[in-house]
Design brief:
Elements (H helix, E strand, L loop, with lengths): L2 H21 L3 E4 L7 E5 L2 E9 L4 H9 L6 E8 L7 E4 L1
Length: 92
């Protein structure tokens, strides 16, 4: 599979996550997809999110778990599996 379909799929997944979080009332800051894709805030609730396609690699899990952030922030992997309507959310 070439990079373009993967990039488009990732962009759609990221937009879906932004829409889902926005519907719940979160303010969302989009990042560059490196260690972190999104930061979502609702009052004192802060979610640091990495979006993955199909599965999360051990390296992605490790990078997210080592990301330094406030102790009140949750670190999450949002996995968008092909053909699935919803994300699988894993707290790290």
């Amino acid at each position: 599979m070439s990079d373009d379909p993967i990039k488009r799929r990732m962009a759609r997944a990221k937009q879906r996550a932004i829409d889902d979080l926005g519907a719940l009332g979160y303010d969302v800051i989009s990042s560059d997809n490196r260690p972190i894709c999104l930061v979502a805030m609702l009052g004192k609730d802060i979610r640091i999110i990495k979006i993955c396609l199909d599965s999360a690699s051990p390296e992605e899990k490790q990078r997210v778990s080592q990301y330094s952030a406030s102790s009140v922030a949750s670190r999450e992997l949002w996995i968008r599996k092909s053909g699935r309507e919803r994300f699988e959310i894993q707290k790290v």
